[in-house]
Amino acid sequence: MQSRNFVLAFLVLLVGAIAVQAQSPFAPKVSGPLSQRVVAYQIDAKYDPDKHSVDATETLTYHNLTGQPLDHFPFHLYLNAFQPDSTWVSEAHRDGSFRTSTFGGAWDPKRSGSNTVSSLEVVGIGDLTKQIKFISPDDGNPNDKTVFDIALPHPIEPGQDVVFKIKFRAVFPEVVARTGYKRTFLLAGQWFPKVGVWWNGAWNCHQFHAMTEFFADFGTYDVKITLPKNYVIGATGVETSDTDNGNGSKTVAFHAEDVHDFAWTADPNFKVVESKFDGSEGAVKIRLLTYESYKSSWQRYIDVMQGTMKRFDEWYGPYPYAQITVVDPPHGAAEAGGMEYPTFITGDTFWWAPKGQKLFPEMVTEHEFGHQYWYAMVATNEFENAWLDEGINSYTEVKVLDSLYGKNTSMLNWMGAQMGDTSEQRSFYVGVAETDPLSRPSYQDMSMAAYGGITYGKTATMLLTLENVVGEQVLQKALHAYFMKYRFTHPTQEDFLRTVNEVAGQDLGWYWQQAVYGTQVLDYKVRKAESVRVDWANKDAPDEKKGETFYQTDILLQRLGDFVFPVTAEVKFDNGESIREKWDGRDRWKRFVYLKKAKVLSVEIDPEHQITMDRDYLNNSITTEPQHGAILKITTCWTFLAQFFAQMLSWLT
Amino acid sequence: MADNNKGLVAAGAALVWRRQRVLWWVYAVNLVLGLLGAAGARTQLDHLLRYSLAGESLTKGFDLGMFFELVNVPAANLMRSASSSFLFALLFPLFMLFVTGGILAVYREDRKFTAGEFFAASGAFFWRFVRLVVFSLVPFGLLGAAFSGVRKLSDYLGDRATPAQTGFYILLAGATVVVLLVLFVRLWFDIAQVRAVLQDERRMWPNLWKALGIAWRQARTLFRVYLCISGVAWVTLAVGLFIWTKLPPTATPVSFLVLQFIILMQLLTRLWQRASSVTWYKRHAAIYPADSVDFTTPVPVEVVESEMVCETFAGAGPASPATTAGTWTQTPPATGQPSAPSERENPPSDESGA
Q1: Which residue range(s) make up the domain with A424?
Q2: Which positions in chain B touch A330 (Cβ < 8 Å)?
């Protein structure tokens, strides 16, 4: 009996211990590692708000799980991108702008940022600071110092660990490209020396480009940040301690697991708004760091976060971390807005944001949370396959926002105007439809506009168009399968395409070849829609009479672009009859002929407007009766604007 | 003074109402230019949407996405139409510059003009008004620069302040001041135009300084009148646009009427301001010679008997031989002195060469 009680007590304790572990405040909420933890970072950083700089020591333990000896290690020093002769700046300058910043003019010293390694020691080997060698694997730019390589005197064998001890200083630019300061605000992203990824049998450590984001290995982070004690701080992972140092400063410690980057933010003016989401794996704390000025947006942030997390949880898979931190950057810091780091995102809003527009904060917040799935957990190589993150995320953004705010009003429903997110994605895409294939590394795209239009817009429209072939539900299942299979790994684009093929149960190679690997443009046109009396040659034919006269109706559809895609055309007749025709689109044109006692009224390709890759919607239909509504409406407004402008000018006379 | 200025707004409105033919003509020209300005866009839209279902989402609502498609399609080239609209819009201020002399003459005489009279009066003052417009570029330019400075200041201070609204409030305050100053400059140049017509002032430079003196000393009265009428214009614009946004998407004819009502009210209020300034001048000019204006020290305006004003202006009205002939031919004074009405109103001034 006693022994039974002992066993029972032991079991209770064991279960309790497991339960405690499962409910650990650390991420993830489930026991055991979710990822292959290649790296373990321990960073002790001190922030100087006056100099906008961080002095830190970093201990990186790298587990050699590559299966082969490693005799050199590349590291990113991303803040060195913010120097006038870096590759990043030259690319931004070439295109004149980056996000919300202009780079066409002279160099603004406020944009300077830097990472300086003052000491690099390998435990068991010694000080290798002098061995640091900057490399430029992508473009050979000798002035680019965003990647350095360190050669070891002897290789690290498979299964062994190597420990790097690095002392570094990070100097932040005035906020640009997702990092930097603004007044008392700081967003510290890409701020510490970060080792490259051993991927597909080689080191993958690209220079920082204007048209790329990031790629890193999963692991654990233990980061201590010392800063003035009036600062409010938020970071990747969860806070584990907050110690008052007694000298006007405090040290806040954070811990994160199964993440591949660490970012943090601080500002004495932050207001903290907390909420939670009850997901399929328990409650997730939503911690919003915002400002008094944006009070009208606080609830909007919380609402869109809860709505988005619910849909991702239901459609694609669980969010396994204990917390998500949402940062609402201050005014003037738009460059810090709309960015994702693991368990840490930045939104954006403005103090007078009308509720009818959903761009700020709803769309931005939804989009950045989506990255927790397609970047933070399914950790794709954003240098080489950016579309697997940004693009898929843009597609899921459309699905979530449409579900939350309505298909045709998910971006705007204000002052009589509407716009859906699908239109937004199309607007990115149509202007650059033929410039670059999705499969091209994004930093090699033609321009910044092409990067945005292809990576975001083309992927979103490509997947929306694919729904016509496999069905919306099947594509949702495919994304779910892809997420569950590849989360906490580094999949390739082939992994994604294969997963969709498998779930759809068909080989979609014909589609991928055009939409992913090619630059073909999809454009279909109704070339002709005409009804002619069958007895047109008979001079003695009776007068036309509706419902009695026979007509031959000719419908001519044409494929203008090189992208072959099956389409549906809807033909409407004046007797109320409606016929849907399918065309595989393989030939350049297709004719449909009807003999009916009715005349054609209209023909429309893709009547549901689901082929969102079609570059020109305006040539998709023909009517036999003139349509005045839109013309009159726009002309009315146009006339008014011209009149108003004219009378404004006349005010000066 | 207060009694004499009483009802100036109402008197101006009554004058616009009595001479509403002016308003309708100005509106008609504005509308025609607006339609011509929109014709290019209409042609493009006709080409794209006349036999297409693509415009349905614009008809049944206003799908901004579809509108962007229209703008982005190279074949549409709506932006080119925008530049032609701009050119047509530029014609309207030129037209207004031309007819302002005629409008002020109509308001001065408060009677129906023949087309010949109207255009003769317009032509008679056109080049003087061109000179005034050129002069007006200086204060308007300065105010433009001031506004630019306010914007930079609001950006600078806003950028350094934690509350996001700071920059906006600074801009709002600065812009309000600039708008009021712009309104004052408009009043100043309106009085100069009124003086040019009512006193047949030919030398615009001295006229301008006299007008400034009047505007400055009478700012309490005239500026308030201008502000009040501008308020009507702004409220009408805001209410009109609010109603417009609430209209059903398919109610294009009603939408057209509402928008045209807004335009009509903008034009009406501008004429109302001019009519008020003419009315004020007719009431006061006789005992308020511009030559004696002290630019810096506001002094109360003496009350003038309305009969006296009427009497004063009687000679410049319809009975004038120069105007009964059907054409407005301003007779230049032989000695370089102001014409008949002006001679009665003003003592010779140093600036007039006497």
Answers
A1: 378-519
A2: 162, 164
**Looking at the domain assignment, is residue A640 inside a domain?**
no
Whole-model pTM: value is 0.88
What does the pLDDT average to over A501-514?
98
Binary contact (A638, B41; C-beta < 8 A):
yes
- Report the gap between the CA of B193 and the closest CA in chain A (Å): 10
Residue of chain A whose alpha carbon sits nearest to that of B163: A293
Residues A95 and A242 placed together within one structural domain of the fold: yes
pLDDT tens per residue, range A381-429: 999 999 999 999 999 999 999 999 999 999 999 998 999 999 999 999 9
Of A377, A399, A427, which closes a domain? A377
Largest separation between any pair of C-alpha atoms in chain A: 113
Q: Is A594 on the interface with B (CB under 8 A)?
A: no
Compute the nearest-CA separation of A640 from chain B (Å).
Answer: 6
Q: Is residue A638 part of a domain?
A: no
CA of A409 vs chain B CAs: smallest distance (Å): 9
pLDDT digits (tens, 9 = 90+) for A226-258: 999 999 999 999 999 999 999 999 999 999 999
| SS3 of residue A620 by DSSP | coil
Residue A116's nearest CA partner among A54, A30, A47 is A54
Q: Do A630 and B55 touch (CB under 8 A)?
A: yes
Residue B276 CA to residue B192 CA, distance in Å, equals 14
Residues 94-123 of B with CB under 8 A from A: 94-97, 100
- Structure-derived torsion over alpha carbons of residues A574, A579, A580, A582, reported in degrees to the nearest 10: -110
Mean pLDDT, rounded, for A250-268: 98
Partners of B250 on chain A (C-beta within 8 Å) are 629
Residues A371 and A460 occupy one common structural domain: no
Answer yes or no: do A67 and A14 share one domain.
Answer: no
Cα B301 to the center of its chain, rounded Å: 25
A355 and A307, same structural domain? yes
Domain boundary among A377, A396, A429: A377
Rounded to a whole number of angstroms, the distance from the CA of B293 to the nearest CA of chain A is 25
Query: What are B44-57's pLDDT values in tens digits?
Result: 999 999 999 999 99
For residue A651, is it within any domain? no
Distance CA A542, CA A540 (A): 6
Residue B34 Cα, gap to closest chain A Cα (Å):
5
Task: Count contacts between A and B (CB, < 8 Å).
Answer: 223
CA atoms of A504 and A485, how far apart (whole Å): 16
Q: Each residue of B59-95: pLDDT tens digit?
A: 999 999 999 888 877 776 777 788 889 999 999 999 9
Residue B353 in tokens: 């060469």
Cβ distance of A647 and B30 shorter than 8 Å: yes
Q: Could you give the number of structural domains in chain A?
A: 5
Is residue A42 located within the same domain as residue A24? no
Say if residue A531 is in the same domain as residue A468.
no
**Environment class of A570 (CB within 10 Å of its CB; exposed 0-12, middle 13-18, buried 19+):** middle
CB contact under 8 A, B53 and A623: yes
The answer to whether residues A382 and A496 belong to one domain is: yes
Concatenate the DSSP letters of all residues of A298-363 into one string.
Answer: HHHHHHHHHHHHHHHHHHT----SSEEEEE-PPTT-GGGSSEEETTEEE----TT--TTB-IIIII
On whether both A541 and A609 belong to a single domain, the answer is yes
Which residues of A are less than 8 Å from B31 in CB distance?
Answer: 639, 643
Report the chain A residue with the minimal C-alpha distance to residue B130: A653
CATH number of the domain encompassing residue A115: 2.60.40.1730
When scoring A631, A636, A641, A651 by the number of chain B Cβ atoms within 10 A, the one with the most, hence best to mutate, is: A631
CATH number at residue A319: 1.10.390.10
Is the residue at A636 inside a domain? Answer: no
Is B51 in contact with A431 (Cβ distance < 8 A)?
no
- Cα distance between residue A631 and residue A611, in whole Å: 25
CATH (domain of A602): 2.60.40
Q: Which residues of A touch B65 (CB under 8 A)?
A: 419-420, 422-424, 426-427
